[in-house]
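Following up on my earlier thread - several people asked me to post the actual chain instead of describing it. Fair enough. Here it is, all 163 residues.
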Amino acid sequence: MDRKMYAPWREEYILGPKEKGCLFCRIFREEKDRQNYVLYRGEKVFVVMNRYPYVSGHLMVVPNRHIAHIEKLPRATSEELMYETQRAVKILKQILQPHSLNIGINLGHQSGAGVPGHLHQHIVPRWHGDTNFLSVIGNTRVVSVSLTNVYRQLVKPFQEIEL
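Reply from S.P.:
Thanks for posting it. Predicted structure:
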């Protein structure tokens, strides 16, 4: 018997209408931080929760400018991107207490970038057992905490905690 697990947030991404223009540029322009799950806005980058996370607490650090190629990032943007990545790691470790983390950038569509035209760095908290049979065999991930609840946990620390 085949069993199915329903993950409605993935259906919206897979079947929903594709956004015209750049998702990250729209989020940067809009001042709807709570609706868009923006945790922090800096001079050169912003930190946003992934609306379609691999696991709870999946964050992205995104340049404010539309840049696809890492080698074209201005130095000040590169420095702020790394600083905010470090700060996000510190906050995630303190608030969500993952066992480990993955950090990475997918450059180009073939590498897995969902928004290949706008560079962004993923920060993915990891817990023991989060790569169990469901993700390996069933191609399904269980995200046990809602985006809104994780946002509420993280938004204040992003305004208060420095390195």
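The two ends are 51 Å apart (CA to CA). That should answer part of your original question.
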